[in-house]
Request: fold
Amino acid sequence: MNSHDSSPGIVHRTSLPSSFMHKRRQSCLRVVCGTVLTTVLLIGMMGPSCISVPPIEDPDDSEVLDSHATTPPDSEDATEFGDATNSPAPGQDTPAPPVADKGGGSNEGPGAGTMPAPAPILAPGDAPIGPTWFVAGNDPAASDEGVDAGTEAKPFKTLQKAAEVVQPGDTVCVKAGVYTSTNGLSYSGTLQIATSGTADKPITFTRYGNDEVIIDATSTQTYGIAVGDVRNNKPVAYINIRGFKVTGAVRDGIYILRGSYINIQDCECYANNRAWQSGQNAYYAGITASGGDNITVEGCRVYSNGFGIWFVETDYNSTNPTGSKYCTIRNNFIYCNAFSGNYGNSSGFGMRFGEFSLIEGNVIYDNPDAAINGLGNVCNRFLRNALFNSWQQPGNREGIKFCVRGGGGNIVAFNISAFNANTGYDSTSGVGDVVFNNTFYHNDSWGILLEGRHTLLMNNISFANNPGASPGQRDIMVNRDGMHPGSDYNLIGDATLPAISQQKLPQPHTINADPMLVNPLQLQRGDPLAVTHPEQLFVDADGDGKVTIEEAMADIAARYALNADSPARAAGTSLYDIQARITASLPDFINQANQRISDLSGDKGLQSQQSCSMWRRAISYMQSADHGWMDQLSGLSDFAGNPVPMDAALNMGASQQ
Reply:
């Protein structure tokens, strides 16, 4: 049956690219039994090369976002994000020291906003840089002993043996099987990677060809894969991990300890957070990064965990916290992460105190808390994400909310946030966020809730939201001074447009109308623990039984496209004009952030001090010479992936079709 009904009905689903495999030549420096036949087989069979690349109102910034709390929260504010006083940072008994900033920018001062070069990659078809080791637990010849162990003829039996021998430039190819460990060590992983690669010689762990490799923590190991020596609190760098299924961890499926240049690709992380089953109020993630920089998570499926993907700070109780920087979370399916003792904290993607990161092209649905969630985030880009059906009680159920407890200067563009049980977008405490060309449709509460300071809002569609509310309180709600005076060119469906802004700001080009979307996608709400895979929701365009992220995005884009006679066509303003308005608004953003700091100047609480720290950081970046993360908009694509011209009058909403 085709994927669509004729009404805003039920969706169908998809899998990531089954693999990113390609042919590679083999380096045989340590491979003793390298015969011509072996070489020929490896050319066709080896794995892929590296690819890197709260309550509605929060006037006191009192919300807490602790992904790993193990005791119930004590207050209404804490219910949203857990009780931060009850748990250390994930994977740590005590706060860890910060890792040196390898991201090419400092936290303060001119030039801090300079974007670094992307993490080094191997292009498809490249040969492994160094020796190749083999692991095959099901091979009768497999052994961890002997001078020839680790060759294809006599592969290692365990993953950990391979991890103990690798050196920079090495590749570990893992053949089909279920890999477990029962070493009984706390803060350990079924696979623990404690050796670093280098910039020109990364270490790669990959499945062999299209083999199914399952890393099963058997409900006894703290992590499925620990990237870093977590027992001795030592991070690693330049690690590539590809093609594994990771399940059964007591805490996180994949845990990255303050790593640098770590690439996680084409992995499937599911049914982790087993701590919940032992009665803990836990919500550990499929993939967690504690601090670090230049971490990439791409092309993964993350589902049935306590949390989806989670980037948190290293210094949990610091008044000047350090989160992850220069990271990329792109083209992932993140869904049904309700395997949790705390729905109020079980989100799809979350980030705490993150900076200069890219969250792009993810399909996130059926999570109890927000699809995108977080606090204290500064100068990140949230682009082209599809955010559906955050609905499960007692979760907070927003589409996007990421500036609880300070932050700002983030770009939110070309996203679709629809059919969530709370708001489509909540600015919370952000100052100077820029929100344009998004579609907020049929959310149970407001499409747009502006609680922060001076959000610049342009070219958005907010329609058919909050159907039970009174006129003037449906598609947008502005608290305090949440909307910047330069906001305009939005389609707001509610018929009483003057009521949208407490400041009564002029918006001569904002219109009230039905945007006439083609066939908006609606997901059913049923059993919170049921797993609805992408293949059940989205069109499998090539009919191979696996929906790729590209197929899902194309399906969603077609459904949320504008009909030919939509009033939102060519009704927006150009990227060039938005860029100019951002530049002109920087002094206002800075003034508002300073005012927020002044408002809390007498409050010595940890949360207030963290908020002020993140507003000061945003001010520093806005005053620096390089504002490229905010006002350089050339090269953007719309939701459907089409390039967006700088000077053309744009359609409103996410899709420019």
About this structure: Residues 1-125 have pLDDT under 50 and may be disordered. Residues 449 and 477 are 5 Å apart (CA to CA).
